[in-house]
Design goal:
- This protein is α+β, with helices and mostly antiparallel strands and 157 residues long.
- It has two domains: 30 residues; 122 residues, Immunoglobulins (Immunoglobulin-like).
- A five-stranded antiparallel β-sheet has the order 1-3-8-5-6, with no helix packed on it.
- It is elongated, with a radius of gyration of 23 Å.
- The mean pLDDT is 90.
Length: 157
């Protein structure tokens, strides 16, 4: 009878160990953070090179029941920067070569504002014509782990 208990204990321990390993390798327990975005694309239309910066604000909603984490914000060009506002808290400005240590926590049923700022004069006189700039934001939403915003326009002198 004692040998049987030892074998059953070893089997149970092995199953628990395997389950824990699988859970650890899969990144822990699944989250119920859900990133909702109404708009992914925006066209500034005609942008005057000498008219100063232009901006667009996108909303990222947390429609889940867990905290939505926003990380690794990056723009596709040095002429473009992005900043996130959650409540009254502002992130640093992010660009093409951003540091990835910042994490923004969006509470359930709340939202974050992503402001994208484009400097049409950044590339100088040769920077006229159509532009397409991208901003990416990574999240802990397992079904929407990376959100990419696309902004277009035409720069003129």
């Amino acid at each position: 009878m004692t040998e049987k208990k030892i074998i059953i204990s070893i089997v149970i321990f092995t199953i628990l160990l395997l389950f824990g390993g699988v859970l650890l390798l899969s990144g822990g327990s699944p989250t119920n953070a859900k990133a909702g975005v109404d708009q992914l694309n925006f066209d500034w239309g005609q942008i005057d090179m000498k008219g100063g910066n232009v901006s667009k604000t996108f909303t990222i909603k947390n429609t889940g029941t867990d905290i939505l984490q926003l990380t690794k914000i990056r723009t596709s060009c040095h002429c473009t920067k992005a900043q996130i506002k959650i409540g009254e808290t502002l992130s640093p400005y992010f660009g093409m070569n951003s540091s990835f240590s910042w994490v923004g926590d969006v509470p359930p049923q709340k939202e974050a504002q992503l402001e994208v700022i484009f400097d049409p004069a950044y590339h100088g006189p040769s920077g006229v014509g159509p532009i397409n700039r991208l901003v990416s934001v990574e999240t802990n939403d397992t079904k929407n782990s990376r959100i990419e915003f696309s902004l277009t326009g035409t720069v003129f002198k």
